[in-house]
Amino acid sequence: MKKASFFLLAAVLVIVACEKNDTNANSSSTSTGKGGSLARFTIIGNYLYAVSSHYLYTVDVSNPSNPVKSGQSALNFDMETIYSYKNRLFIGSRTGLYIYSIDTPSEPRLIGEAKHGRSCDPVVANDSVSYSTLKGNTYCGPATSGLYVYDVKNLSQPVLKKTITMNDPLGLGIADSALYVCYTEGLKVYSIKNAYDPVEMKTIPGTDFADVIPYDNILICWTNGGISLYDITDRLNPAFIKKITD
After folding, report:
1. b/e code 50-62 from CB counts within 10 Å (16+ = b)
2. Which CATH architecture has domain 2-245?
3. pTM of the predicted model, to two decimals?
């Protein structure tokens, strides 16, 4: 999937560039890069945040031609993914979900965490709920594979509300009252009108889905062999548009 990941990265960079342009036009500094749940970096305002296995890096990109690393925090949590929402970073690791405040953008601060069995852990979130997919196997760890739903209204104390078992879940994405969950046999679409009780509405079968980026009315899907685009004007009924192949 190396070429597919290149296409996905290109799509993300285009989105970020567009948002940067829009932000400049409006004289604002609150733009947010749009990435998938498997991303290891995100842009919020004038800062890029990136995770390695054991570090969170903060980079000042206010001057894009001269980015400056402004911070590096040792984490020791086996970090894997990073997802931004407003002034929060949701970081998925092999041992839990970690929530960081970026009220002071140059100094991310840990404010909450929820531990789980060792596994691979993409995550997405909004104001009140966080969704993670845990994948238990020989490489990731022994946790039960599935979709994990957390109440994050109290950011310092995330509470696990529900677990939906699923074979080999991967990346996921939120668009309004719809949740899209990738797995090795397709893409599952859930209604999250009740945020803590996702209801499966349909499955799009076929090629492996690895990750998704909902962007306005388009769902950008990283799939085996390329990038597939879906119209999600009707959030619960994605309509295939085209596939960009390797």
Report:
1. bbeeeebbbbbbe
2. 7 Propeller (2.130)
3. 0.76
